[in-house]
């Protein structure tokens, strides 16, 4: 029989090892969300705030980008993908699409369309229908058929 003192010592060592291992695992799982909140890197299927917000909807480009930025790699268990889930259960704050005034304006210029320039751009490889050039077909043909 093991004495009471020895059993208490073994129990204390086991509890200390579990505590140190658990705190080390928690440190590895800490992360920062795209909105700079502290969170834990867990399976998206365990993160109710993100899962409830995004499930059964068609996502905008901004929401897809938010999910991409939410991905993390510190999780050690669970189903992929892993996301940085806010610790306080906060709902995701996805940036709204840029307004037309915020988007960069682009100007277009008309490209030159002369036949010489088009021949240079195409490298002379494409037939020019304006010059009655037809495409070349090397495919199978019917015996006795015409071109």
Automatic annotation (TrEMBL):
Gene3D superfamilies in alphabetical order: 3.30.1640.30
Location of the Clip domain: 30-85
Domain of life: Eukaryota
Protein name: CLIP domain-containing serine protease
GO biological process: proteolysis
Pfam families associated with the record: CLIP
GO molecular function: serine-type peptidase activity
Signal peptide start-end: 1-25
Annotated keywords: Disulfide bond, Glycoprotein, Hydrolase, Protease, Serine protease, Signal, Zymogen
